[in-house]
Amino acid sequence: MSKAIQEVGAVLEKFQEGYTHRDITKLDEFIHLFEQSAEVEMIGIGATQRGSYEWFEGIDSIKEIIQSDWENWGDVQIDVSGAKIRVHGDVAWVSTTATLAKTDLTEVLPFFLEMIKEKLEDESKPPEERMTDIALFSVNRLSDMQREVGHQWPQVITMVLTKNQPGWQIAALHWSIPAA
Predict the structure, then answer these.
(1) CB-CB contact of 76 with 96 (8 Å)
(2) Quick check: 171 and 160 in contact, CB under 8 A?
(3) CATH 3.10.450.50 fits 3-103+154-176, yes or no
(4) How far is CA 27 from CA 17, 112, 124, in A?
(5) Residue-wise pLDDT tens digits, 31-79
């Protein structure tokens, strides 16, 4: 295994550690796994178009969603050892699987209601589309809440990393949950 692959693997391990411990006091340290630029992006499981819901661009936006993940999301377990890592020069790409295990969602109901409020107030969409978005979001969250704590949703994670002055950093990250 090449040194570069080991270094990229170490970034993936640190990423998992952050999502395992979810220590908000270490968020500033964790965010340095990402390129510190306006171009860095993280695409969440609900993203459908650039600049909209769950498509985060810029380090400040990514920091906000990671904090939200750590406070409101389930337990993420990334298959670090099974990750496929390819390196070409100063660019690496990673693909792997993960699971998202359900935690007790009753504490995040206010967060869900805030998200519904944001959808309701999104004047960039016509009223019918906003109502559809709210209905789908609400039904999905209610369905999630009916599942047992510990239920696991499969995920696929892809990343692009670049080698910069401090070492390998995430330039793009995409979370996805299979539709079926």
Answers:
(1) no
(2) yes
(3) yes
(4) 12, 22, 32
(5) 999 999 999 999 988 788 888 778 999 999 999 999 989 988 889 999 9
